[in-house]
Amino acid sequence: MKRLIAGLPFIAAVIFGGFFLWGLNPDRDPNEIPSVLISQPAPAFDLDPVPGLETPGLARSDLVGNERPVVVNVFASWCVPCRAEHAVLTRFVERDGMRLFGINYKDKPEDAVKWLNDLGNPYERIGSDLSGRTGIEWGLSGVPETFIVDSDGTVLFRYVGPVVGPDAVERFTQALKQAGALPNGAGS
Amino acid sequence: MVPEIGHFALALALALALVQSVLPIAGASRGNAVWMKSAQATAIGQVLFVAIAFAALMQAFIVSDFTVRNVVENSHSLKPMLYKVAGTWGSHEGSLLLWILILAVFGAGVAWFGSNIPAETKARTLSVQAWISVGFLSFLLLTSNPFERVFPPPLDGNDLNPLLQDMGLAMHPPLLYFGYVGFSIVFSFAVAALIEGRVDPAWARWVRPWTLAAWISLTAGIALGSWWAYYELGWGGWWFWDPVENVSFMPWLLGTALLHSAIVTEKRDAFKSWTILLAILTFSLSLLGTFIVRSGLLTSVHAFAVDPERGVYILGLLAVSIGGSLALYAWRAPEMEPGGLFRPVSREAGLLVNNLILAAATGTVLFGTLYPLILEAVTGDKISVGPPFFNAAFIPMMLALVVFMGLGPFLSWKRADIAGLLDRIQFVAVLAVIAALAAWYLLNGGPIMAYLAILGAAWLLFATLREWALRIRLFEVSLAESARRVRNLPRASHGMTLAHAGVAVLMMGMIGSTGWKSEEIVFAAPGTEVTIAGFDITFEGAAKVQGPNYIADRGTLVVRRDGELVTTLFPERRYYPVAESQTTESAIRSTLAGDLYTSIATPASDQVNNAGAWTLRILYEPLVNLIWIGSILLVIGGCLSLSDRRLRVGAPRRAKQPATDAVPAE
Description:
Number of strands of chain B: 10
Distance between the termini of chain B: 58 Å
Low-confidence stretches of chain B: 604-608, 650-666
Mean pLDDT of chain A: 84
Helix content of chain B: 55-70%
Structural class of chain A: alpha/beta
CATH architecture of chain A: 3-Layer(aba) Sandwich
Radius of gyration of chain B: 27 Å
Largest sheet of chain A: 5 strands, mixed
Largest sheet of chain B: 6 strands, antiparallel
Shape of chain B: globular
CATH topology of chain A: Glutaredoxin
Shape of chain A: elongated
Strand order of the largest sheet of chain A: 5-4-3-6-7
Order of helices and strands of chain A: HEEHEHEHEHEEH
Mean pLDDT of chain B: 86
Oligomer: heterodimer
Radius of gyration of chain A: 21 Å
CATH superfamily of chain A: Glutaredoxin
Largest interface: A-B, 27 and 37 residues
Number of domains of chain A: 1
Number of strands of chain A: 7
Order of helices and strands of chain B: HHHHHHHHHHHHHHHHHEEEEEEEEEHEHH
Number of helices of chain B: 20
């Protein structure tokens, strides 16, 4: 009996150790938070276009009633990962026919214009969220973030951080396919 | 050149640690005095080489040597010198080097000052300490070399985060580390005792000063971290039950239990295997903290950059050290003979209850901290455990602890006189109830729990003072006689009184600032008036001001009470163009009665900005300063107790020092 009690701390330590080993799995991300917006209607917003850009502004009504689900990407010229992500999103638009809308988050219009002129503009519409208010409505935890919204205006998927690198692109492609956001046959 | 010297010094330290981990312990089992003695030289050699490495890294930071990757990533030529120096331990690699330095300092400390410890015990202890050194030195050299060069060197460093340029932040890691790495030597003593299979009062006496020293720094480190979060971060709170806070708090709780159980082992030769277990677990929790902070296992606001490879290595170290020591414990502990017997009402029993509650509280915090991980592993659900769980589970336990804390010092060893005890404490109990009722009458509102806590804090404070008064026979004999008794009382006893009173003061601060905190968030144009906790605050407007390296929006708030001007506060929102970051500088009117805490936030949009409206956050936190005062009392109490000459009996080297001459002959 005494031996058993003296052995208890060791057994407890081994059990905790097992959980830690599991927790170290590199695929696990403790910061990944299931979005409260998933399966919820997208928030109401109406954003003006970025001054100096010909792309029209973005409102919730633009997300509703489309043939296929669309993608909303939150970006800013001051955000370095966005620059890397830009190329990936452009490829999705040009090669796979994804429809992309942008929310330009807390960005100076002239910087945003320069950024898009340098890198190209894959966005159909861009709303300028200078105050960050719409970002709050969307429950943004950082920039970039990407949402897939279906034709009823319901948020189907949320990706926090840049869609960059094979794993992230694979996950995002899967989500696009499941949502039916790509025209048939695309995204292979 | 200098970084290479540092790197080489680390390799030499590792070589010495390897020798020290084998030779002395082998000498102890063979009775070879020379081998045992070698630990002394290697332990001191180790501290020298690690100190050289640390100095080399610090030099790289001071001269901003941007050929060193660590300096590039964690410093900037424009940083003030103080923060360049503090940058040495700001990164994962640098802080690990500091960790190892402190480990070596404690090892050398035992080698140097431990002349009263028998040669075998000392040799074994230092060998065990060297095992830990080997583990962490190899970890540093293999996975996180702080001296790695970068080519081509960049023009300037990357880090100029103004938020992190603060005295509190610069000082709190070293203190915290000194605390939780300090428990390593206690761990080594415990493992050495298990290998020897013998624990006696003398053992407890050698261990106590080390435990106490580690505990004091940990207390100061935690308090400083909390103070920093409160004043500098502008969060308006002092404890958030964040995983990284919890991992520093758990060794503190268990270390407190160890401190008390070691007393029983020292005085009564009892609780031996429990004390050993606590010594092992306290350091295990420190290691766990190191692991959690550096592995990205849990979500936290202040973790280091994460690398899974490092996580696996540290987990390996944990498995060997914690698993190994607990296995050794399971094997050897049942053979230890039980010590002195005691009655259910006695000092021993009181300390036993204290230990059980502290251990249960530690278990609760551990469970709450790891629950998200365990749940995710078992069911895949993701949750976070926040303050509601900890408050609901932890506070009642602490209240129970406080009841026994007040009672304990009145109890005598072996068997306490129950009638006499009741006689001495009934007055205190009545006084505490009156204090709580008075609080109820004077303050309306507030949670019931807060009144119970007031009752507990008052009980603890009065009981502690009463016990002290009994010892010096205050008002029973002449004041001069009492004063003489104060001087003759052992310092450890004053230390206990101060520390226990410190807890009561600390509790008052916590109760006041959580139970009666008031908060107003207003969207204010100039001229807006806000009333909070009896203060009338007028927002006069905000203006742009230019600082040395920032531009700020400075709000002007005039504070009046009953029409009379109290003070004018200037909260700022600073923007640092070079670092492209913003900080909130709260303006605080701090008094013993409470803090009036104001901060200003950026306007919601530019249109509103033009109208001159701002978001103001105004908090009133009653008694919050008692938290820091209570923490200071705890630290002073610990230091007093550490300076008690009884802890040094048989240590002639220290007894000759003039400090002890101040203690009159008994």
